[in-house]
Amino acid sequence: MGSRENISKDTISLAGKSGQVWGVAMRSSPGSLKPIYVSPGHRISVESSIRFVKLCCKFRVPEPVRQADIRSKIFLQKLKEPGHQVIGMSCFLCIYFVCKAIIYQMLRFHTLSSHCCF
Q: What are the transmembrane regions (predicted)?
Protein backbone atom coordinates (compact mmCIF):
# COMPACT_ATOMS: atom_id res chain seq x y z
CA MET A 1 0.00 0.00 0.00
CA GLY A 2 3.00 2.23 0.33
CA SER A 3 3.71 2.31 -3.40
CA ARG A 4 2.95 5.51 -5.32
CA GLU A 5 -0.01 4.12 -7.30
CA ASN A 6 -1.70 2.88 -4.11
CA ILE A 7 -1.08 5.93 -1.92
CA SER A 8 -4.61 7.32 -2.45
CA LYS A 9 -6.48 3.99 -2.13
CA ASP A 10 -8.11 2.89 1.12
CA THR A 11 -8.55 -0.74 0.05
CA ILE A 12 -6.84 -3.04 -2.41
CA SER A 13 -8.51 -6.30 -3.39
CA LEU A 14 -6.53 -9.48 -2.86
CA ALA A 15 -7.57 -11.92 -5.56
CA GLY A 16 -6.35 -15.37 -6.53
CA LYS A 17 -5.38 -16.53 -10.01
CA SER A 18 -8.99 -17.51 -10.69
CA GLY A 19 -10.13 -13.96 -10.00
CA GLN A 20 -11.91 -14.84 -6.76
CA VAL A 21 -11.44 -12.09 -4.15
CA TRP A 22 -9.98 -13.57 -0.97
CA GLY A 23 -10.00 -10.33 0.99
CA VAL A 24 -8.57 -6.81 1.01
CA ALA A 25 -5.61 -4.89 2.31
CA MET A 26 -7.15 -1.88 4.03
CA ARG A 27 -6.02 1.37 5.62
CA SER A 28 -7.73 1.49 8.98
CA SER A 29 -6.81 5.14 9.54
CA PRO A 30 -6.10 8.01 7.14
CA GLY A 31 -2.47 8.21 6.07
CA SER A 32 -1.56 4.82 7.51
CA LEU A 33 1.12 3.06 5.48
CA LYS A 34 0.72 -0.29 7.25
CA PRO A 35 -2.41 -2.05 6.04
CA ILE A 36 -4.53 -4.52 7.92
CA TYR A 37 -5.81 -7.56 6.07
CA VAL A 38 -9.53 -8.29 6.06
CA SER A 39 -11.05 -11.49 4.75
CA PRO A 40 -14.66 -12.64 4.93
CA GLY A 41 -15.79 -15.43 7.19
CA HIS A 42 -18.77 -17.77 7.11
CA ARG A 43 -21.91 -16.09 5.70
CA ILE A 44 -20.42 -12.57 5.50
CA SER A 45 -19.33 -10.77 2.35
CA VAL A 46 -16.08 -8.91 1.78
CA GLU A 47 -17.97 -5.59 1.76
CA SER A 48 -19.69 -6.38 5.06
CA SER A 49 -16.37 -7.47 6.57
CA ILE A 50 -14.81 -4.13 5.59
CA ARG A 51 -17.73 -2.17 7.10
CA PHE A 52 -17.53 -4.18 10.33
CA VAL A 53 -13.77 -3.67 10.65
CA LYS A 54 -14.15 0.08 10.01
CA LEU A 55 -16.73 0.24 12.81
CA CYS A 56 -14.23 -1.44 15.15
CA CYS A 57 -11.21 0.75 14.35
CA LYS A 58 -10.55 3.53 16.83
CA PHE A 59 -6.84 3.10 16.14
CA ARG A 60 -4.92 1.22 13.42
CA VAL A 61 -5.76 -2.20 14.85
CA PRO A 62 -9.47 -3.15 15.28
CA GLU A 63 -10.59 -2.64 18.87
CA PRO A 64 -11.36 -6.32 19.73
CA VAL A 65 -7.84 -7.33 18.67
CA ARG A 66 -6.30 -4.33 20.46
CA GLN A 67 -8.19 -5.04 23.69
CA ALA A 68 -7.29 -8.74 23.56
CA ASP A 69 -3.63 -7.77 23.12
CA ILE A 70 -3.74 -5.34 26.06
CA ARG A 71 -5.56 -7.79 28.35
CA SER A 72 -3.38 -10.75 27.39
CA LYS A 73 -0.26 -8.73 28.24
CA ILE A 74 -1.74 -7.89 31.65
CA PHE A 75 -2.65 -11.55 32.16
CA LEU A 76 0.88 -12.68 31.23
CA GLN A 77 2.42 -10.11 33.58
CA LYS A 78 0.30 -11.51 36.42
CA LEU A 79 1.49 -15.02 35.55
CA LYS A 80 5.10 -13.88 35.98
CA GLU A 81 4.39 -12.95 39.60
CA PRO A 82 5.64 -15.46 42.20
CA GLY A 83 3.24 -18.30 42.96
CA HIS A 84 1.60 -18.56 39.51
CA GLN A 85 2.01 -21.58 37.29
CA VAL A 86 0.90 -22.00 33.71
CA ILE A 87 -0.67 -25.36 32.99
CA GLY A 88 -0.82 -26.41 29.33
CA MET A 89 -3.05 -24.25 27.17
CA SER A 90 -4.66 -22.21 29.95
CA CYS A 91 -2.93 -19.03 28.79
CA PHE A 92 -4.20 -19.38 25.22
CA LEU A 93 -7.70 -20.34 26.36
CA CYS A 94 -7.88 -17.22 28.51
CA ILE A 95 -6.90 -15.02 25.54
CA TYR A 96 -9.47 -16.80 23.36
CA PHE A 97 -12.29 -16.17 25.84
CA VAL A 98 -11.28 -12.54 26.32
CA CYS A 99 -11.41 -12.01 22.53
CA LYS A 100 -14.76 -13.74 22.31
CA ALA A 101 -16.22 -11.62 25.13
CA ILE A 102 -14.99 -8.36 23.59
CA ILE A 103 -16.39 -9.20 20.16
CA TYR A 104 -19.73 -10.19 21.73
CA GLN A 105 -19.92 -6.88 23.61
CA MET A 106 -19.07 -4.87 20.48
CA LEU A 107 -21.69 -6.70 18.41
CA ARG A 108 -24.25 -6.22 21.18
CA PHE A 109 -23.42 -2.50 21.48
CA HIS A 110 -23.66 -1.87 17.72
CA THR A 111 -26.88 -3.86 17.41
CA LEU A 112 -28.54 -1.91 20.23
CA SER A 113 -27.16 1.54 19.53
CA SER A 114 -27.18 1.89 15.76
CA HIS A 115 -29.37 1.14 12.82
CA CYS A 116 -26.51 -0.19 10.73
CA CYS A 117 -27.15 -3.57 9.27
CA PHE A 118 -24.57 -5.86 7.74
A: 86-107
Beta strands in 6-110 (DSSP E): 11-15, 21-26, 36-38
Query: Does residue 79 sit in the same domain as residue 44?
Result: no
Residue 89 CB coordination number (10 Å):
9
Whether residues 93 and 71 fall in one domain: yes
Per-residue pLDDT tens for 92-112? 666 667 777 777 666 665 544
Q: Are residue 25 and residue 52 in the same domain, yes or no?
A: yes
DSSP code of residue 82: T
Of the pLDDT bands very low, low, confident and very high (cuts 50, 70, 90), residue 14 is very high
